[in-house]
Amino acid sequence: MMALDSRAFRHTMGLFATGVTLIAAQDGDETHCMTATAVASLSLEPMLALACIAKRARMAGFLEKAAGFSINLLRDDQQALSSYFAGAWQAATPPPFRLVPWQGGPRIEGCLAAIGCEVHAFVEGGDHWIVIGRVLALHRGIEPRRPLLFYAGRYRHADFAEGQAAPDLGWVEAPTHVYYDPWQET
Ligand SMILES: Cc1cc2nc3c(=O)[nH]c(=O)nc-3n(C[C@H](O)[C@H](O)[C@H](O)COP(=O)(O)O)c2cc1C
Fold it and tell me: Is 58 a pocket residue for ligand 1 (Cβ < 6 Å)?
């Protein structure tokens, strides 16, 4: 059996491919941005989104003061911004970016898409805070919309040639197939 430690957990969860986002928040004159992949949509009614923020990240303390935040989805050519806002930037000058005032938190210009949120709740999640935001605004950037991906600890680029339509959102209503689960046998 595989070892059950945080390294194995990280490597296993790392097989769940994600996009890459920048969380941006403003408190008075101060703005703070942080790279995050632990982001998800949470609820449609009401519209909620969440981000998992390490308690030791400066962003955690910052979000307690800020009224909201934006989730900025990075494009395939914005890897430098991901590294910069993860504190892993080596070059002398930062990569170019621009923040524009927006609902919830400042929006980073030129991203794939953005979700503006007001802080709804902080939920305890071990060494992270699950920060839940109520969605105030949505933005979709110009075409072509190609996301930066993160998988197995590396940045990746999608091959859209392989794309196939997923079930329509009406799938919730569709009949589901229930399979016999041998683990439930008593
Ligand atoms: C690809 C990638 C994804 C990351 N995802 C998260 C995340 O979801 N949550 C988190 O708290 N930190 C995440 N981090 C780490 C933070 O970006 C990093 O610790 C950052 O320096 C914290 O910034 P701060 O302390 O200035 O707020 C990620 C880093 C990278 C490179």
Answer: yes
Determine the Cα–Cα distance for residues 25 and 64; give it in Å rounded to an integer. Answer: 10
- The CATH number for 57's domain is 2.30.110.10
**Ligand 1 mutation target, pool 30, 34, 71, 81, most atoms within 8 A of CB:** 34
Provide, rounded to the nearest whole percent, the portion of the chain with pLDDT above 70: 91
By residue range, what is the domain housing residue 92? Answer: 8-157
Spatial distance between the Cα atoms of 127 and 137, rounded to a whole number of angstroms: 29
**Structural domain total, the chain:** 1
| Listed residue (115, 108, 102, 66) closest to 85, CA to CA | 108
Residue 169 lies in a domain: no
Residue 11 to residue 53: CA distance in whole angstroms: 19
Q: Which atom of ligand 1 is nearest to the CA of 53?
A: 11
Residue 184 pLDDT: 64
- Residues in Cβ contact with 165 at an 8 Å cutoff, skipping those fewer than 6 apart: none
Residue ID of nearest Cα to ligand 1 atom 7: 36
Residue 15 Cα to ligand 1 middle (Å): 18
